[in-house]
Amino acid sequence: MNSYRVKKGLVIVYTGEGKGKTSAALGGVLRAFGHGFKIKVFHFIKKDSGSGEQKVLRQLGIEVETLGKGFTWNSENIEDDIRLARNGWTKAANDILSGDYDLIVLDELNYVLDYAFLDSEMIIETLRKKPQNLHVIITGRGAPDNLVEFADLVTEMKMVKHPYHSMGLKAQKGVEY
After folding, report:
1. Could you tell me whether strands 63-66 and 135-139 are parallel, antiparallel, or unpaired per DSSP bridges?
2. Domains of the chain
3. What's the pTM?
4. What are the Cα distances from residue 57, in Å, to 16, 121, 173?
5. pLDDT tens across the length of the chain (177 residues)
């Protein structure tokens, strides 16, 4: 059998300092949706804020679960953030292993790993047991080396210029959220 005909669910990581990690993952979601895939998106940091992407995913009937309460580097309660991350991972791991989905997105999981709220080896062990045809996309800065090594496809986004730094512009509706 030709290798290009073998269907294997991929583990895809979008990481790096540049913008576009979640956008790339959502592009994959739209492509998969167009082919009838059953999809679930987990947001590990973002709260249910009614962002443009959350609205349209729900309008399309794609399951979205927000697990965080916002940007944790401003957190006043790290223990609560750790609890949310662990509870969120339990939900995500159950769905990964369930066989119910064709694509699962773990948006901003790399941040949770970088903050050591979760252990990357535990994540990798779950990914080793995933159904053969399940695709998993993981986003966020600071992907750990062992996850990069384990993944099938890794893209590092590089920031060349960003209006937040060059012009002091804050995130804009319709562009960043």
Report:
1. unpaired
2. 7-166 (3.40.50.300)
3. 0.90
4. 24, 30, 16
5. 445 555 899 999 999 999 999 999 999 999 999 999 999 999 998 777 678 888 999 999 999 999 877 665 566 788 988 999 999 999 999 999 999 999 999 999 999 999 999 999 999 999 999 999 999 999 999 999 999 999 999 999 998 887 776 667 777 666 666
